[in-house]
Amino acid sequence: MRRSLSLHRCPQWVRLHAGVTSPMTDNAFTYRASAWLLATLVMFFGDVAMASSLKLADPSELAGRWHATLNDPRDTAVSRALQDKPSNVCDIDLQQQQTLGEGADCLGAWLEEQPIGWFPDPDGISITGKEGSRIVFFSRQHDGFYQSTLKSGLIITLERSAR
């Protein structure tokens, strides 16, 4: 009489070659599938969250009067608040047609190129030159406050003027 071979008493290599999987292999597949699923969900929901946080502002939201200040990065908050030299402060008019109005000459003196226009970016405001190319980008710090660092290291801040 022939005895049936019990898989529980067989060596592991016999069980693996017989097509029997071990609980460890089942768990590895489950962990791998879970990791892929989690990565896919993070990518999907991360893109949705990122897209909503970088909303492109309508030009009408940014048009109007802005107060620009040229600062040295070593200036303290108190010295920045006291900036009143005409060469360090400008009032700039971002017009509805995405052109620069009053104050463009003052800003141009800081940029070493005459600014002509502007356009909104998802994360800031770009100022353009004669040929329509970007000459400076102001990064959005918070509502109504934008900042740019020039090649010289000086910082220009744009702050929404009271309406």
What does this structure look like?
With 163 residues, this protein is α+β, with helices and mostly antiparallel strands. It folds into 2 domains: 12-53; 59-160, Lipocalin, CATH 2.40.128. It is built from 5 helices and 7 strands; from the N terminus they run H-H-H-E-H-E-H-E-E-E-E-E. Strands 2-1-7-6-5-4-3 form a 7-stranded antiparallel beta sheet. Strand 4 (124-128) and strand 5 (134-142) form a beta hairpin. The longest helix has 31 residues, at 23-53. The protein is elongated, with a radius of gyration of 31 Å. It starts with 11 loop residues before the first helix and ends with a strand. The relative contact order is 0.12. The model has no long low-confidence stretch (mean pLDDT 79).
